[in-house]
Amino acid sequence: MLKNFQAELQALGKYVVQQSRTNLTKGKHNVSRDLYNSIKFEENSNQGIDSIKWIMDNYGEYVDQGVHGTKSSYVTAKNSPFKYKESSSLMGVEYYSGKNKQFGGIFGQWAKSKNIRFRNAKGQYAKGNNKSMGFALQRSIFAQGLKPNYFFTKPFYKGLKKLNPDLASSFALDIENAIILGQKK
Length: 185
Prior knowledge:
Helix content: 40-55%
Number of helices: 7
Shape: elongated
Structural class: mainly alpha
Order of helices and strands: HHEEHEHHHEH
Strand order of the largest sheet: 1-2
Strand content: 5-15%
Largest sheet: 2 strands, antiparallel
Radius of gyration: 23 Å
Number of domains: 2
């Protein structure tokens, strides 16, 4: 019945997904494309009430909102609800730093893809492999936290601002069409 309203919700969903993916790519947070590919939206209609929800990998919230570190934190992450604790293991030190993993786990793979290597005081390459680089990156993130980039939050609020006038007019158009159809019977 509310076809124009549904079309506006679909447009919002597509806009937020497209802009979020663009922000990930422009912000250079798209090495493995796992988060990029996981961003989707679903439309729900429950008892005549239309709604929309966005889905992404769990760590997308951490990338979007940032995380407070144990020793210091980025100023831009001050409103983040996420924080590493001294007792936490950063979701498994062994997995992320690369213990028993080829190329040093996720952080080691990331360092390899970005060609990040240890250097000495002269700026020359120093000894160290991807596994040790992965462990060093994990320790740094644990201490300093993650800087937020709002890849999802910014397009969401921008889409809502854009949607308000369109949503009201599409809803009014749907009601007007329903009244006209009711009068024709």
